[in-house]
Amino acid sequence: MLRWCTLTMDPVEEIKARLPIEELVGQYRQLTKKGRNFVCLCPFHNDTHPSMVVSPDKGIAYCFACNAGGDIFSFYQSIEGVDFRQALKDLAERTGVALPETPVATGAKKDEKERLRDCLESAQNMYRQKLKEHSVALQYLGDRGVPAQQIEEFGLGVAPDSFSETYEHLLKEGFSRSEILGAGLAVQKDLKEGRIYDRFRNRLMFPIHDAQGRIVGFGGRTLGEGDAKYINSSEGPLYNKSAILYGYHAAKEAMRSAQRAYMVEGYFDVLACHRSGIHNVVAVSGTALTSQHAKLLRRSCDTVVLCLDQDQAGRDAAERAFHILSAEGLHVRSVAIVQKDPAEAAQQDPHALQAALESAGKPYIESVLEAADTSAIQSAEGKRMLLQRVLPLLASVPSAVEQEHYLGMVAAALHTSKTALYEDLARLPGRVQDSSESIVAQVPVEKGAHTQPFSKVEIALGLLLLYPSCRPLIRELIEPAEGFAASFYAAIAALPAGAEMQPDALDIAPEYQERLNVLLLFCEEHNMHNWSEVLAYTKVRKQCACANHENLQHTLRGLHDKLLEAQQQGRGTDETQIKNQYQQVLKLARLAASG
Ligand SMILES: [Zn+2]
Questions:
Q1: Residue 290 contacts residue 275 (beta carbons within 8 Å)
Q2: Does the pLDDT of residue 503 top 80, yes or no?
Q3: pTM above the 0.70 mark?
Q4: Strands 52-55 and 60-63: what pairing?
Q5: Sheet with 32-34, edge to edge strand ranges
Q6: Which residues contact 107 (CB under 8 A, 6 or more apart)?
Q7: 356-367 pLDDT, tens per residue?
Q8: Which residues surround the ion ligand 1 when the cut-off is CB under 5 Å?
Q9: Ligand 1 centre from 38 Cα, in Å?
Q10: Would you say 58 and 22 are in contact if contact means Cβ atoms under 8 Å apart?
Q11: β-pair partners for 55
Q12: CA 45 – ligand 1 centroid, Å
């Protein structure tokens, strides 16, 4: 636990006071007012109707369908994929709350990842300097229409045409051999000999950042002949290509406000879109699209517009992308341009590119149907070919309403009936999957979809808090042994009889305050909060009995396991003792069941 060397208000509380939960969540999802609360589409699961409840009173945003969310810190951690420390830093900055310097942090050794980032930054500084003197690279960038201001903004550079210059430079800057290797900037060719080579040689360098805008690696385009056109940093503690999208951090704000992201193929395409005034653009780098990429996008928008290369490889990539993005509940559209890619389009006709992108194209399935050869689908063979392609796409559409809509379109295009299509769809042998594991579209699993977020005793205690007149019933409840329930039990038992109590004034361990608020929201969502006194008494009493039953069953299972263990290990005295305990608890359980 962090400790603050100040007597003023705890920064965590101060940030909470300054940043209402609805304001934070509202920056990611559109909120709809519902009674005292708001609701919105849950960003953490494939949600089709608003499942996330946002409670301004309780400072909680929670989805009871997938059990995700919490207070502003929990929500921010989940949606940005950061740890508590980073969330505290970001939200403090946003709300203008000063964080006291923790004495531990100053002068302490930087952690491994920070060292690797410093190493990458140091390399980037060198690459940027090199570019300034590199006429060939500057000429090349000029030919591709990249202006000086964009070179600066995106931090482009050049890796020198040398096997060791970068490595030597970083050693001089104080980085160790293993740090340079860990940052993915060097390659150890021969393990015995231990010689190290620069990974990037004579390449135009694009720094790659994570969602928070911190450098994690590079993509390098060759400036010579005969080498691989593009290579990326090797994967390491910072760079995981399956989870990183090029340009994401620069696109984040624009994606959120438009609820839309453009997906292009290359670094130059990303730059081209920015020049055309489109800032919500990302590209995969060095890998095919994965479901992790799709989840990352899902945090910031609900629609992805594909603008991939206009060739067969690009069309195949679009089809795979459609399956993967749909599986995460994203709407997928497609923009067709006459040029090869957005980079070429921006050079030939930047205004046309902007207009094409801003139109956001067409829903992907529609674009596939339109691109189909109309003369070919007159024949049975032609219909079969198109169906083979379109049926798996239809199967991937997450919303039933949308699926129905496209089914109608396909039926019309093929001059067949919807019923016939439904039959074909039902016969489809599961989802089509590619052999490459990175692009296997996963059917979204709603995590913990059918599990209750709270135990029976937790709900019983929640009800005792909500109904002061029922509080004497706490005597009927078996005292929980540990965790939130134990802390909550002690707090309620200590309350003066019949007193109304604000939940945040309850004497409960601070680490449980969030769980308590989620529990009260749970009770509210399940209409447990406005029963009449008489009804409440019956219901609470029943809940206490259920909680006791759950508790005793749990104890019995524990004793049973202990007994088996004692028997196996031949501990005779323990065995007798446990047996006695077991009999006593069993008696209690029977008594509870009959009462
Ligand atoms: Zn959810």
A1: no
A2: no
A3: no
A4: antiparallel
A5: 32-34, 37-40, 52-55, 60-63, 68-70
A6: none
A7: 999 988 999 998
A8: 42, 44-45, 63, 65-66
A9: 15
A10: no
A11: 60
A12: 4
CA-based R_g, the chain, Å: 30
Would you say how long the chain is, in residues?
595
Q: How close is the Cα of 40 to the center of ligand 1, in Å?
A: 10
User: Which DSSP string do the residues of 535-559 spell out, in sequence order?
Assistant: HHHHHHHHHHHHHHHHHHHHHHHHH
Q: How far is CA 393 from the centre of its chain?
A: 24
Confidence of residue 263 (pLDDT cuts 50, 70, 90): very high
Distance from the CA of 583 to the center of ligand 1, in angstroms?
43
Residue 72 Cα to ligand 1 midpoint, Å, equals 16
Residue 528: φ, ψ to 5°? -95, 0
For 387-401, give the DSSP string: HHHHHHHHHH-S-HH
Least confident residue range of 41-50, 119-128, 178-187, 190-199: 190-199
Ligand 1 centroid – CA 23 distance (Å): 19
| Rounded Cα distance, 199 and 203, in Å | 10
Integer Cα distance of 139 and 320 in angstroms = 36
Cα of 448 from ligand 1 centre, angstroms: 10
